[in-house]
């Protein structure tokens, strides 16, 4: 049902897809046990905010034993060998917890109401796309001169996110088209050399994107797929709960890895969407 014509058309138009209950509750429970054990190790807590890339089967199974590989077979097209399911298995992931107060003014989960709109504007105008060099994780993301793009961002929710401003993923719908047009105009040399700092963020955001951001709310076990070029950011967590999520970055296994041409053609490696008309 997640791959019917209407759903695929919406995905192609918006650049993001929500798949409800894509991961079995037992897999989520096993993953949460492993993650919560890490909270007892002070040296790991800050790294849990997107700086930890474990290879634990308990976490990898959120992708490998879910419906996601089968969905990606449809979207990314048939492979050149018979064992296509094995080709879209993942060997690492990114842990991304957001604690109450994260990205809030003063790191307080109780920000002044009068500051909320202004602060969120600053947050949403600081969007990014993954794979561009940054100083976020020394030795990992500071690959200046190289773009490590991929095809699809897969986010797995491990906790319910029912209301906005709870550390949820936010995306700018249709931004993948706007960014491909931007790169056609400017080229990609600047983002290759300077990374996210060369993106048209800040006040240029509302000139580039014509639709407001969407807050990716959902239940534990839900999955969000996003085209690589879809601009996104994380909302402040003003809730009382930790937002648990795990991310996977998938490159189509039957196309050239990290082809920069995909920066100009957002659906280059998605033959399963070739016949979907907008």
Describe the structure.
The structure is a single chain. The protein is an alpha+beta fold. 30% of the residues lie in helices and 13% in strands. The protein contains ten helices and nine strands. The strands form two sheets. The protein has a six-stranded antiparallel β-sheet with strand order 1-7-4-9-3-2, with helices on one face. Strands 6-5-8 form a three-stranded antiparallel β-sheet, with no helix packed on it. Helix 2 runs antiparallel to helix 4. The mean pLDDT is 91.
Helix-strand blueprint:
Blueprint: H1 5-14, E1 16-19, H2 25-38, H3 42-45, E2 49-52, H4 57-64, H5 68-76, H6 84-87, E3 94-96, H7 113-124, E4 152-157, E5 169-171, H8 175-186, H9 189-194, H10 205-208, E6 214-215, E7 223-227, E8 232-234, E9 245-250
Unreliably modeled segments: none
Give the strand line-up of the largest sheet: 1-7-4-9-3-2
Broad shape: globular
The percentage of residues in β strands lies in 5-15%
Number of helices: 10
What is the CA–CA distance across the termini?
19 Å
Number of strands: 9
Largest sheet: 6 strands, antiparallel
Give the helix/strand class: alpha+beta
Order of helices and strands: HEHHEHHHEHEEHHHEEEE
Q: Mean pLDDT, nearest integer?
A: 91
Q: Output the radius of gyration.
A: 18 Å
Tags for this entry?
single chain, 278 residues, alpha+beta, six-stranded antiparallel β-sheet, three-stranded antiparallel β-sheet, 10 helices, 9 strands, 13% strand, globular
Task: Provide a short characterization of the protein structure.
30% of the residues lie in helices and 13% in strands.
